[in-house]
Amino acid sequence: MRALLLFTFLIPISFSLKCVKIFLTPEVHFHAENNCRAISGTLVTIKNAIDNRAILNLASSAGISTMSLGLYCFGNNTSGCFWDDGSGSPISYNNFQTSNQFDKTGRGVVMSVSNTFGTNQGKWLSVNCYDGVNTFSSYPYMCETPPTQPMSGCKHNYNGYCYTTSKQIGNQKYDGNFAKTFNWIDGTTWDFHYMNPLNFQKGKCLVMDLENYGLWSQVDCDQKMEFLCKRKILADTAPTKKSYEAPGILLDASNCNSTLYLVPGSISSYGYPDFTTPPTYCSWRLVALGPYRMGIYFDFWATYSALTIYDEYGTDIGQFVGTYNRTPFARYTPFNMATITFRPKSGPNVDRGFHAVVLPL
């Protein structure tokens, strides 16, 4: 894979410090984002005009004519566009070409670096990522990673923290003194988890399964396992976590008939877990940001109704009907988009519906 040297630049007005790397070999959006993910980064994001100019100048100096951005659109206006790093929509700033903002068949977003599309340099355009016959549009791209500061003796340095493996520091022992509810032992807010929905074992400690998408499971605290230690290096380099909300109005906790539902989250038959509600037709359009597929974990199923999962291009990748009771099971999507339909069917038992947790993988 051809790549240029690592560039760093400081934007003092926007307080934006980025480490970026340019890849000249064209890739489709999904593969480009995967390559960025492999170096602990994401496709480049642009949050203001100064960033836009800096990125344009770097891409131009590398001889790039058109470059992929870390922005993906699920509709034909900016409210349906989301940055791959999970920081939300380009509401406060975007640089789409006014005369032709969106290709209605496209979802990826590129920057015109050398006026390739007959527009001004630095303008953004949505492009068709798929033409229906397995042909994808590919472009050079730029990855960005958060900055950090060198620390003597630190082998794993990322985003202002030094990480040390258990093999580096020898045998350690935990006292098992954990609260009944999970908390980070450094006192930071418990605002994210990645629990395996189909793992039902109990314990006061958590482990990460490195062979199962990094999902977490509960275990007894006296089990000996490999671990990582985390030490802060630079106080102000960690990015502020931002939240985002999917557009549209959700009817209830089932998220039934969602026009666009950003995962992680859960879906269920309408009214679940109120089993007195009769089965109702529901559909969900599920979306994961960035280079993620989705895992759909069905942790409850007691219905004769028909549920079908379609991938981004309408291919049936799973249909479930006819069996009333199913043990917990999972299905995985090949892309970062999927559609699910749930059609009522009657049977001899009381229909209790279904519930599933959906995670980006």
Automatic annotation (TrEMBL):
Residue intervals of the C-type lectin domain: 15-129, 169-230
Keywords: Disulfide bond, Signal
CDD domains listed in its UniProt record: CLECT, CUB
Signal peptide: 1-16
Family matches, as SMART domains: CLECT (SM00034), CUB (SM00042)
Classification via SUPFAM superfamilies: C-type lectin-like, Spermadhesin, CUB domain
Name of the protein described by the UniProt record: C-type LECtin
Lineage: Eukaryota, Metazoa, Ecdysozoa, Nematoda, Chromadorea
